[in-house]
Input
Amino acid sequence: MSQPPHIPVLLAEVLACIQPRDGGVYLDATFGDGGYSRAILDAAACTVWAIDRDPHARARADQLAGIYPGRFTLVHGCFGDMAALMDGVGVAQIDGVAMDFGVSSMQLDSPERGFSFRADGPLDMRMGGASGDVAHGDDAHNKAPSAADVVNTAGEKELADIIWRYGEERQSRRIARAIVNDRTETPFERTTQLAGLVRRVVGRTRDGIDPATRTFQALRIYVNDELGEIDRGLLGAEVLLRPGGRLAVVAFHSLEDRRVKTFLRGRSSTAGQASRHAPQTPAARKPTFRLLKKGAIKPGDAECARNPRARSARLRTAERTTVSPCAQDGRSV
Output
């Protein structure tokens, strides 16, 4: 049975932000199935670079490269490293950057990847594949642990903290206690093992959402350092975008969206500046982005009906100013 096609979320709105033009250079920082890349390439005679950490993306990218010869290239890596990756291929400035976060439909629909709690598979969840080519935390030379590694070795308090912080699961302590108790008898190796335990501990939810949802989300975010990737990716986009370049970011849950909102709000404000009649001080910060719309853009009812995974999506857009990228302390450099 063939899998349903991947449907890019808020595609028309992303294109309206990016505004592809002939001769432009664009970056699809989270390639996935290539929906945004293909749409940008169709919209103008432009060049698109794409980034993906998942080795399974290569086959889809090769197909796209054949359809758009000389105009499309995939670079393997993490989108948080986009500035270094683009520098490595000789690209200094980009006219537009598109990003959508989280797990892709292809990963969810592949039980062997271990992302889905609905189908049995190895408890893996590494977006870089079983080789673990994506590091967790600050040490880029370490191999990422799988979800099974985390579940079977982390202490009870650490597990509870992970499940609460990244899954916002209110029963995180009970789940962590049950995991530590059960793993003494049988280590967790399969997705159905963990999903069954969580369902047993949490019980049926009033909202109808599978009880395992938040725990699986938490482990996936932790294993892949997804929030850290977002922080690094936003900084990378700030470096790469030329003045007037556009940024379109699609988030799928509050943890992601909050990160983007906070970054763009800080980068588009003049916080720290004195009166415009007073001399600028070293602590003053000029905006590096201009918000194209205050607040997030949400999918309409028709799109949600076509693609249920779009329901939680939030798009935030901004335009790069002429101000140099900010230093780590937030001041322009």
Summary: Residues 1-5, 131-142, 272-282 have pLDDT under 50 and may be disordered.
